[in-house]
């Protein structure tokens, strides 16, 4: 197997500014190393001798064992250190594992490929991808041949940070150097493509897996089916589902849930029932996700009583509602103006030991806003803060919209000013709401402040502003903004175009837009 000197692999190392020969010093974990020393000196195993590495589940025991090993003569082999590092990684104490590797290097314990793979894995979990690639550079310098595990770890790290193009590039380079990816590597790339919405590339990659003799399992197929459904390609998802069954691969609950969710979103009740009946025939029971999808679908259709019946059926089958279930029902009652019933659901969930979250409170706030009960909405908003449940930008947007609809723009602006103090960044919804209801001059100031908050105006923002200018006879400003909007690649909506046309007809001046 040839060594890898590809620009694709070395590119992240160079960009990260890491020197493969001293990657430990460039990725600072000195404080953790100090922590290891302190714990090692002060901590003793709870019951005599430390546990065997495979059964270690306490970091203090692991640190005690490590400290003992590095001071033992003769020093244990790197294999023993690898076992201990593996135990630390299973505890998800990645930074401590990195510092252990640094101390191993200091005590001249020569790492092998397993040590360096563990280190790469730790850096990837810590989000230190440049350090992970530095470990690959160190392998090349030491003459240690990277393995498929090395590349699958780096590929997974890239995918987790949505750097899918780099992941695919590394995958291609790996194959070009004669490595044979295993099913884990293929599945990692496939999952990464789906998570980043690269639907068609995911389908092509799935076909490539099949062509290369790696028959995807139901998890891989379900991942692609889910991706197709989420991107509005239901027919393609159903075709792939049929193909899976024709190959003799048994669908699982995940694949059924993806399709049922997509069908429910489109209101295709007949097809949904067909899939549910098929599940029964295949002896696959509905889980909490299935029930939540069905309850949500009925709530969105205003069929709350039917949704509650499904919830009762779920309980009869031994599945208790979760927070998502309760939030769906609370939202449905709030949208129907049935706030008393919504609060009863909240009381029920609290009795079941389930605490309301930011979604629950936001839904209740919205329910009061819809009924123009702004004082009650504000009380729930304050209660949310008192309960230690920090409002998110969606919560603020609900309150701001409520105040705007109630023509209490001063209160809306007060909340807007609070956003920065509470660590929230206004989004396009925030600005659109305020601009739609505000006065043209104030709205213009807000519009121009968007870029200062790293929130670029979208097409909807431009159209709102232009319509506001036109309705208030700010013809020149409206025209200038229209030109700016077009230069950004946006186009006027129907309402905006109609207002301009009306202006031209009333003024009999076709040169307004020139």
Named CATH architecture of one domain? Alpha Horseshoe
Structural classification: mainly alpha
Order of helices and strands: HHHHHHHHHHHHHHHHHHHHHHHHHHHHH
Provide the residue-averaged pLDDT.
Answer: 85
Describe the biggest sheet?
none
GO biological process, one term: mitochondria-nucleus signaling pathway
Keywords: Repeat
Pfam families: PPR_1, PPR_2
Protein name: Pentacotripeptide-repeat region of PRORP domain-containing protein
What characteristics describe this protein?
globular, mainly alpha, repeat, single chain, TPR-like_helical_dom_sf, Serine Threonine Protein Phosphatase 5, Tetratricopeptide repeat, 514 residues, PPR_rpt, Pentacotripeptide-repeat region of PRORP domain-containing protein, 29 helices, 0% strand
Topology, element by element:
Blueprint: H1 7-16, H2 23-26, H3 30-42, H4 59-70, H5 78-90, H6 94-106, H7 113-125, H8 129-142, H9 148-160, H10 164-176, H11 183-195, H12 199-211, H13 218-230, H14 234-246, H15 253-265, H16 269-281, H17 288-300, H18 304-316, H19 323-335, H20 339-351, H21 358-370, H22 374-386, H23 393-405, H24 409-421, H25 428-437, H26 440-449, H27 459-471, H28 475-487, H29 494-507
Family: Belongs to the PPR family. P subfamily.
Organism: Gossypium mustelinum (Cotton)
InterPro entries: PPR_rpt (IPR002885), TPR-like_helical_dom_sf (IPR011990)
